[in-house]
Amino acid sequence: MEASPRTFPAGPYSVAEITRLVREVLEGAIPVVWVKGEVSNFTLHTSGHMYFSLKDETAQLRCVMFRSANSKLSFGVENGMSVEARGEITVYERSGQYQLCVFEMIPAGLGSLQLALEQLKKKLSKEGLFDEARKRPLPPYPTRVGVVTSPTGAAVRDIVRIIRKRQPAVEIILRPVRVQGEGAAQEIALAVEEFNRFGDVDVLIVGRGGGSLEDLWAFNAEVVARAIFASRIPVVSAVGHEIDFTVSDLVADVRAPTPSGAAQMVVRDRSDVAREVLGLARGLASGVRNKVSSLRREIERTRSRYAFARAPDIVRQRVQRLDEVSRRLQTSGSRIATERRQLLDSQAGRLRALDPAEVLRRGYAVCRREATGEVLREASASLVRQRVRVELYRGSLRCNVEGVSENEGLA
Known about the structure:
Rossmann fold; 4 domains; CATH 2.40.50.140; 411 residues; alpha/beta; 12 helices
C-alpha cells in the first residue's frame, strides 16, 4: 500500500498543525480495514464507549469502539480474547496518537453467536438458574396444558396430535408466538409471563422444531431464560431435535428431546393409566382379602382362649352378684326409711307440743292489754278497771279488771 507523494511547505509548524497533517496523511492513505489481534487494556467507559488495544507478538494498536457501534455486539468483550475488528485509522489529536475506530467486531476462530451463548451459560449458571435442586416434577394428571410456540409449525401439530391421542379430555391452550427472528425472544418471554398471570394451566410446553443455531437463537436469549426461571408453572422445554441443546433446556424443569417427546412426557397414555388403575384396584382387593383373613384368624384365636371361653359364666356370676347387691340395697333402704320416718314423727310431736294453739286447746288462755295488745304475764301488770282481752282456744273475751291478786298463780 503506497501513498501518493505530497509536497509540504517549509515550517515551522505548530504541534496541532503537524498532528493534523499526520491525520490527513494516515486517513487518506489507509482505507477501512480488518485487523486481527488480542484484546488488552480493555475499558468500558461510563459513557458506553469501549477503549482497548489489539496486540500481537510484536506490536499493538490503540482502538476505540463507540457506543453506537458496540451496542450491536452479540458477545461480551474481554481481555485476552482474539477478535477481528473492522474500522478506519484515525488520529486523536489531543494526545497525538493514531488509533483504529472500530465499526464492527467478531470473535476470531469462534463464531459470535457461539461465544455469546457460552458467555450467557456461564453467567446464568453462576446465578443458579440451572440448579437441579430448584426444578419441579411435572403434574401426574394435568387437565390443562399451555403451549408456547408458532401456530403454523410442525411442532404445534405434533403436540396437539399426541395429546389428543393419549388423553382426549385434556384441554390445550396455545399462545402463538414467533419462534425466530427479531423480537421472537421477547414474545416467548411475554407468553410465559402471561400464562403465569392468566392461563390457569397445570404445565407449560415451550418450544419449536429444529434448525440452525441462528434459527434457535430466541431460545438461547437471556430474557426467555429468566421468564422460564420465574415461572410458577412447571415448564417443559422442547426445542429442535434431540441433538439440539439450548439455554431454555437448561433452565426448564424438564427438557424434552423434541416437541413430540414433550407431549408424551406431559400427558400419560390413557391405556397406561387404565392398566395402572386396574393394577391398583387388584392390589387393593387383594389387600382387603388378606386383611379380612388375618382378622378372622385373630378372632378364632381369641375365641379359643380360656378367658374368652369363660365369658358367659363370668357374665352370669356378675348378674347374680348384681341381684345380691340390689337386695341388700333394698333391705338397707327400707330400714333407713323406717328409722327416718320414726325420727320425723318424734320431731313433729315435739313441734306440736310447742304450738300455742295446742296449749290453748288444753284450757289455757292468753291475756292482752286491749289498748296495746301487750301480753300480760303478771297480775301487777294490769290496773284495776282497765280493759283486757282474753284469747281462748276458740274466740276471745273482753273484760274489765275488778281486782288484782298478786299471790295466786301456777308458780
